[in-house]
Structure formats: structure tokens, C-alpha cells
Amino acid sequence: MQAMNPGEILLPLSALRRPKPSSAAEGELLDGLGRPLHDLRISVTDRCNFRCTYCMPRDKFGRDHPFLSHDDILRYEEIARLASVFARLGVRKIRLTGGEPLMRKHLHRLVAMLAEIPGLELTLTANGALLARHAADLRAAGLHRITVSLDALDDASFRRMSDAGCGVNEVLAGIDAAAQAGLPVKVNMVVRRGLNEDQILPMARHFRGSGHVLRFIEYMDVGSSNGWRMDEVFSAQEILDRLGSEFPLEALDRPTPDAVAERWRYADGAGEVGVIASVTRAFCRDCSRLRMSPEGKLFTCLFASTGHDLRALLREGRDDEALSAWIRSIWTTRGDRYSELRSSAAPERQKIEMSYIGG
Ligand SMILES: C[S@@+](CC[C@H](N)C(=O)[O-])C[C@H]1O[C@@H](n2cnc3c(N)ncnc32)[C@H](O)[C@@H]1O
Ligand code: SF4
Questions:
Q1: Residues 235-291: tens digit of each pLDDT
Q2: Would you say 155 and 127 are in contact if contact means Cβ atoms under 8 Å apart?
Q3: Of all protein residues, whose CA lies closest to atom 12 belonging to ligand 1?
Q4: Is the shortest distance between the CB of 101 and ligand 2 below 6 Å?
Q5: Closest CA to 90 of 289, 299, 291, 303
Q6: Which of 39, 47, 50, 358 could cross-link to 164 by cystine, CB 3.0-4.6 Å?
Q7: What residues have CB less than 8 Å from 144, skipping those under 6 apart?
Q8: What is the pLDDT of residue 359?
Q9: Which tens digit of pLDDT belongs to each residue from 76-108?
Q10: In angstroms, how far is CA 338 from the centroid of its own chain?
Q11: Does ligand 1 have an atom closer than 6 angstroms to the CB of 356?
């Protein structure tokens, strides 16, 4: 692995040469850069019970924030119908996200509808606060896996990051409930320099040997409200150096070329950790993800400014074939690779918020 200075951006050679991405199979729907459509992230709400400082800082997401209204957001029946169209176009995995997806009432009913679509892997990303009471229903409805976000083990650090009314124990109880319900669990920790890098080792010690995969995420410049600065990014290399100072690590292969995390295992066999280096080691080349906002707009990149209004077509009464043709036209003209180009100092523009599109 190449050593990096904090703040340095490593542009992969793949940004210059672009053969067909290795994740594409014959006959698949490909975008303008030859990338297949495999992965759909559905944000079911833009509301959240936390105010993580890097996502929904309280001064920007107060009572007067223009959250979407109930009529704006897609109903579960609408989401399920669109999901079946996406599945026929090649989507293999759906991740439900938000905002906090468990703020939507009876989310397990949506999971049950999606579970009827053949061939889909169903996952959910949640902040954990409401998970203890919903984990068993979600599992019974057909959820396959879950990712829980937790940025610190120390309660004061956790509250500093999440600005939430709950503490670490509620999130840990949610993780336990998910595991007891039979859901494989991943834990996501965003690392923001100066706020929680001291929690890398305590988190690693806690989750080593638990069977849950802990994944460290570089703080990203999604949205505009968090006032992101490059010097607050604690790089993947720094995270690995910190981990390696206590636990020898061995590199593992990515399970698929379009997987977002670099994987490592503890040399003593105590399990696996991941690092998501979205800033310092951009992975646009294999990005097979499409994102749908709560009111049914399609975004071809996490860093896009505008979406494509699928809800309008849906509510106009278009049939599945028309919806499918429209989605095809969006995907086949896609050419986004924002993260690879980040360092070329593109002019500042309004970007969608993470709490709206869901990560
Ligand atoms: C937007 S949240 C939505 C789901 C849920 N509320 C949660 O926190 O897990 C999805 C993921 O994005 C991560 N996230 C939010 N803002 C981020 C940022 N600026 N940089 C990196 N990750 C971020 C969160 O930590 C979480 O793991
Ligand atoms: S990261 Fe998740 S829990 Fe935190 S504010 Fe954003 S949506 Fe809410």
C-alpha cells in the first residue's frame, strides 16, 4: 500500500485508462463508461432522529428546514413497483436508507413487499436507535443484512458526533437485537479528524471477535451543509496505520469489483475490518450504484446536484415498459465520476444532502 500524507488525494490510473469494468457481464445494461447497474439505494425519508454534525448539523436542519411532506414521498406500493422494474433491468441489491429509514412507519411492510421480488438482496442502513424494537420484524419480513452506523464507543464522543438524544448503549442494544434476529451486521464508523479518530482503536477492540464487520468511512464532501474541509478527512491510510499500531492486518480481496470497502483481516483471526476510502482512493471506475430519493428522483451519483423525476412518470400512469425505457435512457447516458475528478477543483456547486439521498 502506498503511503500518503493527510489531505493528499491519490488519483488512480484507472481515471486515465478505462477498459470495460470487471463487474460487467455479457448482456447487461451499461452506462456511458461501461459500468453495469447492480445496486439501487432507496432513501425512504429525509427525516432523522439524529443530527450528526457531518450530515445534518442542527443549525441547518432545524424546525424551519423544508423537509418533504407525506404526499411528496413515495408510498410503499410505489417503491415496490419501481423496485420490480429495476430488478428486471439487472439490479441485484437494494439498500434502504434515509434520513433514518426506521422513522418510516412499519418499514418491515416495505421489506416484505421487496422480498417478493425474485433475486434481490435486501439490506438496510440505520443509526441503530430504533433498531432494538424493529429488528425481529425486519428479519421476519425478509431483510438479509443490516448496516448500523456508530461513530464512537465513548458516550461523550458519540453524542458529539451524532448530536442525538440517545447514547451508545441504545445503538449497541440495536446491534445485539439485529444479531439475535439472525441478521448479519456491519458497523459503519465515519472518522472526522479532531472529533473521533481517538475512537478507532476502542471501536476495533470492541467489535473484534464479535462476528460484526467494522468499517471505517472517510468523511466525505456530500451536501453543502456540513462545511466539509479536506483537512478534516482522516485518511484510509491513517486509519490503517492506527489500527496496525495495535493489530497486525492482512489484506483481503474485494468480494466483487464494485464493492465499496477495502477489506482487511486481523492476523490473529479475530475477524475482518473494512475501510471506505471514498475521498483519498476514489472508486468511481466500478460504481454500479443508482440512488432514488424519497420522492422518487433518480441520482446517478452521490455528488450530483439534480435528479431525474421518476415519480412524475409513475403518477402519470405510465406502464412498466415505459418506466423501464426511461430508466435505461438515464443509465446508458451516465458518465459521472465526481470522486475521481474531485482534485481537479471543479467549481463549487450545490450538492444534494446525504440525509436526503442516503449515502
Ligand atoms: C445518511 S446515513 C442514512 C442511514 C442512517 N440514518 C444511518 O446513519 O445509518 C448513511 C450513512 O452515511 C454516513 N454519512 C453521512 N454523512 C456522511 C459524510 N459526510 N461522510 C461520510 N459518511 C457519511 C452515515 O454515517 C451512515 O453510515
Ligand atoms: S448520518 Fe444517518 S443518523 Fe446521522 S444525521 Fe445523517 S441520516 Fe441521521
A1: 999 999 999 999 999 999 988 888 889 999 999 999 999 999 999 988 788 999 999
A2: no
A3: 359
A4: no
A5: 289
A6: 50
A7: 121, 122, 123, 183, 184
A8: 86
A9: 999 999 999 999 999 999 999 999 999 999 999
A10: 16
A11: no
Q: What is the Å distance from ligand 1's center to 285 Cα? A: 22
Angle between helices 76-88 and 107-115 (to 10 degrees): 30
DSSP per residue over 262-299, as a string?
Answer: EEEEETTSS-EEEEE-TTTB--GGG--EEEE-TTSEEE
Q: Is 355 in the pocket of ligand 1 (CB under 6 A)?
A: yes
Instruction: Write out the H or E segment, with its range, that includes residue 58.
Output: none
Verify whether ligand 1 is closer than 6 Å to residue 100 (CB atom). Answer: yes
**If DSSP codes are grouped into helix, strand and coil, which group holds residue 8?**
coil
pLDDT of residue 344: 55
d(CA 286, CA 257): 6
Rg (CA), the chain: 20
Tell me whether residue 26 is exposed, middle or buried, using C-beta atoms within 10 angstroms of its C-beta: 0 to 12, 13 to 18, 19 or more: exposed
The arithmetic mean of pLDDT across residues 135-164, rounded, is 97
100 pocket-lining for ligand 2 (C-beta < 6 Å): yes
* Ligand 1 proximity of 359 Cβ (cutoff 6 Å): yes
Residue 46 C-alpha to ligand 2 middle, in angstroms?
A: 10
> Cell for 262?
477495502
Q: Is the CB of 128 under 6 A from ligand 2?
A: no
Instruction: Look up cell 427525516; give the residue.
Output: 47
Between the alpha carbon of residue 235 and those of residues 54, 110, 197, 248, 273, the distances in Å are: 16, 36, 10, 18, 15
pLDDT at position 282: 81
Closest atom of ligand 2 to 355 CA is 7
Residue 344 C-beta-side C-alpha neighbours within 13 Å = 8
CA distance 170 to 347: 42
pTM above 0.90, yes or no: yes
Distances (CA, A) of 88 to 84, 308, 324, 327, 328: 6, 19, 9, 11, 11
